[in-house]
Structure formats: C-alpha cells, structure tokens
Amino acid sequence: MNISRKPWPISLAIFTIWLIVVVGGGLLQVRGQPTQLDELVKSQLIFGVIVAVVFLTGVITYLNWWDQIGWKGLNNSRNMHLLWLPAIFLFFLLVIVLFTGLPPTRILLIVVINTLLVGISEELMFRGVLFHGASSSFGIWRAVWITAAIFGSVHTLNSLITGDFNASAVQAFFAGMFGVWAVALRVRLDTVIPLIIIHWLWDCLAFLTSSSQGLVLLFFSFILFFYGIWLLRSFRSTVAPFAQNRCAGLSRR
Q: Under a CB-based contact definition with an 8 Å cutoff, are residues 111 and 46 in contact?
C-alpha cells in the first residue's frame, strides 16, 4: 500500500502513536518512580523503544515508505565527505571515554543496545517519517525547523520519567540543535542510514562519558548546528519533493 496524497497528517498520526509507545513504555518500566536516564539506560533494556522500532518497521512496510523515508544507500558516494565533522567529534568523544575508562562489560553491552535502538527509533521517526510528511507539505527548509523543534520538544517529556524538568529542558535544547544538523545531513545525503549510526554512537559515547563533559558536548553541538545551517544554505527556496513529483507528473500528461 502506498499512501502519498496526505503524508503529513499520516506522519503526525504515526508520531502520536510512537510517542505514546515510547513515553508510556518508559513510565511503565520505571513504575512511575523518578529514575535518571543514565540509570535506566545502563541497567536494563528499554522495552518501550523496542516496541517503537517494531511499530515503525511495520507501519513503514505497510505504507511502502522505505524509499521516501530514506532507507537506501547514498545518492552519491562523493557526499561521504559531509560526514567528516561529525566523525571528528565522535572520535574525540571516544578518546574521552577510553581515557576515563569503560564500564563493566554487562553495562557496556546494555548501553550499546539501548542507544542503537534509540538511534533506529528516533531517526526513522523524525528524519524519516516526520521529515517525509513535513517536506511534502511545507518544503525542505520549513520541514527542517518543524522536525527539529518537535524533536527537541519531545525530550522535555523525559521529565515524566526523571522528575527533573530543568535537566530535560537542557536535553531538549541539545536535541533541537542535533535535529537541525541531523536533518541537514539527511537532505544532503538522501539517506537516513548514516544518521542512525551517528545518532547511535553520539548517544552511546555521551552516556559513557562523565557528566563533567557536558561543556564538551555543548561545544560540539553548537559547531554542528551551524554546520547544519551551512549545509542547508541552498535549500531555503526548494520546493517540496512531493510537489515536484506531482508537477512532473502533470507535465508528462
């Protein structure tokens, strides 16, 4: 089944269900008790995220949206150079982790699995489904800010699990900046797969670093935010892909 006429409202409906699954699953897992994210990510698999990945896989398959959400190879292998800056920062985070010391193997494995699942879930949802819907209706430039704003705002809901709204607000700020440069890479690379890997490694290394490295993450986030703006400099007046395809179809007639 290929529903292409109204991808924006459909993507919003998918997002609503996804959000209920992730947040509701997290609340059920901690049984309503305030729990720090570090403690949760390092102690047990997050079942709400697992269900969210299964849900997104099923709905994307049903709608036949895999190509539209960017589940494909690079449009041009020469664009790999666009990944050099995130790669450098990930390398620095890895050095910090190795310098401060790795946790026990069990904790390391749990963090690796949880952050991989989060990377898959959030990239498929925000830079995949939601960006496809938003760009089809509003164009690329507006879709960047819409998806980044929603991505950042959603992270304030972590306060329902942690009980700490201020910390969640700071995380939302980081996430909003992450959302801008992540979707910029999505636009330029025309694939979501490298973003899943970057998101996974970013979260994994961030959770493995000590809280004292917050300033380092803030510095990296600001630079990558402006890098994302630079990557999008030629897309401010770009017509939505859906509109372009529709016009092309009319012209052929």
A: no
Distance between CA atoms of 119 and 98, rounded to whole angstroms? 22
Q: Which two tokens stand for residue 95?
A: 């050095």
Global pTM value: 0.90
Whether the Cβ atoms of residue 172 and residue 96 lie closer than 8 Å to each other: no
* Tens-level pLDDT at each residue, the chain (253 residues): 445 568 999 999 999 999 999 999 999 999 989 999 999 999 999 999 999 999 999 999 999 999 999 999 887 788 999 999 999 999 999 998 999 889 999 999 999 999 999 999 999 999 999 999 999 999 999 999 999 999 999 999 999 999 999 989 988 999 999 999 999 999 999 999 999 999 999 999 999 986 546 778 888 999 999 999 999 988 876 555 444 443 333 333 3
- Residue 200 · residue 116 · CB < 8 Å: yes
Q: Are the CB atoms for 177 and 221 separated by under 8 Å?
A: yes
Which of 120, 87, 86, 110 has its CA nearest to residue 208? 110
The token pair that represents 40 in the structure block: 């949760």
> DSSP code of 64?
T
Looking up tokens 């509003």 gives: 138
Q: Which residue type occupies 6? A: K
Q: Is the distance from CB of 127 to CB of 193 less than 8 angstroms? A: no
- CA separation (Å) from 180 to 61, 102, 173, 232, 243? 27, 30, 11, 10, 23
Contact between 161 and 37 (Cβ < 8 Å): yes
